[in-house]
């Protein structure tokens, strides 16, 4: 069954609603260098991460300048996992002993996919913007991401432009370890649409990969 991450919470009530809807992971965006309505400061991220119950993963989504900054943010927020935008495989490898699983964000055509797969605990394949940020609301070539899933021995998370309306097709096409959504389940920037979150979770987990 495909796991589900919903990302970009700014309000505790939205986090609670998503957990009640059955998400496997919740993303908290802090320390990013792109303009987004979903960014919160590290202190708020730390407070929200502490509310996430056992058996649901908290994920710090961040764009640090280097591994040292990433480590400081992990120690401050104490997430179960950290989703890193913009670090190279060497910096990702330097976080192998950090107290969080490491998810490296890549685009489907990244020439260093193999190196990231060897150093990170999971890859998140996203339609990232020129600055390496996510939250674009854009899909990418899912066939290419399917090739990544079949070609690499690392959990692959599919992100980028997913919605309750397209997530079934995305899962059937890509067969990812998990799917990840931010803007596609919002009624306004940074505010989640609870019905959309429920429909996203239901359709993502019900979808079956074509044999
Ligand atoms: O959501 C954002 O604004 C964001 C900003 C900077 C880094 C990551 C961000 N979000 C990540 O991008 C994916 C895809 O977003 P979307 O579903 O296309 O809106 C999101 O799930 C986060 O992991």
TrEMBL record:
- List each copy of the N-(5'phosphoribosyl) anthranilate isomerase (PRAI) domain by range: 4-202
Q: Which Pfam families match?
A: PRAI (PF00697)
Give the UniProt record's GO annotations in the biological process aspect: L-tryptophan biosynthetic process
User: Which keywords label this protein?
Assistant: Amino-acid biosynthesis, Aromatic amino acid biosynthesis, Isomerase, Tryptophan biosynthesis
An example Gene Ontology molecular-function term: phosphoribosylanthranilate isomerase activity
**Name of the top EC class for this enzyme:** isomerase
Its pathway, per UniProt, is: Amino-acid biosynthesis; L-tryptophan biosynthesis; L-tryptophan from chorismate: step 3/5
Spell out the Gene3D superfamilies in the cross-references. Aldolase class I
Q: What is its EC number?
A: 5.3.1.24
The record lists the catalysed reaction(s) as:
N-(5-phospho-beta-D-ribosyl)anthranilate = 1-(2-carboxyphenylamino)-1-deoxy-D-ribulose 5-phosphate
- Annotated signal peptide: none
Tell me which SUPFAM superfamilies the record gives.
Ribulose-phoshate binding barrel
Entry's InterPro entries?
Answer: Aldolase_TIM, PRAI_dom, RibuloseP-bd_barrel, TrpF_fam
Q: Looking at the record's lineage, which domain of life comes first?
A: Archaea
Q: Which family does it belong to?
A: Belongs to the TrpF family.
Q: This chain belongs to which protein, by name?
A: N-(5'-phosphoribosyl)anthranilate isomerase
User: Which species?
Assistant: Halapricum desulfuricans
Q: What is the lineage of its organism?
A: Archaea, Methanobacteriati, Methanobacteriota, Stenosarchaea group, Halobacteria
């Amino acid at each position: 069954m495909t796991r589900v991450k919903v990302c970009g919470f700014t309000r505790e009530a939205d986090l609670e609603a998503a957990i009640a809807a059955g998400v496997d992971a919740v993303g908290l965006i802090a320390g990013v260098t792109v303009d987004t309505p979903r960014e919160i400061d590290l202190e708020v991220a730390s407070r929200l991460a502490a509310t996430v119950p056992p058996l649901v993963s908290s994920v710090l989504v961040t764009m640090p300048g280097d591994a040292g900054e990433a480590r400081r943010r992990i120690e401050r927020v104490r997430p179960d996992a950290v989703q890193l935008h913009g670090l190279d495989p060497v910096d990702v490898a330097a976080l192998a002993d950090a107290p969080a699983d490491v998810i490296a964000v890549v685009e489907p055509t990244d020439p260093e996919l193999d190196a990231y797969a060897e150093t990170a605990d999971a890859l998140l394949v996203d339609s990232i913007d020129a600055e390496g940020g996510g939250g674009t609301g854009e899909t990418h070539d899912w066939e290419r991401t399917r090739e990544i899933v079949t070609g690499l021995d690392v959990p692959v998370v599919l992100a980028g432009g997913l919605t309750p309306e397209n997530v079934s097709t995305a899962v059937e096409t890509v067969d990812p370890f998990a799917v990840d959504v931010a803007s596609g389940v919002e009624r306004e920037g940074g505010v989640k649409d609870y019905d959309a979150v429920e429909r996203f979770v239901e359709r993502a987990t019900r979808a079956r990969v074509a044999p």
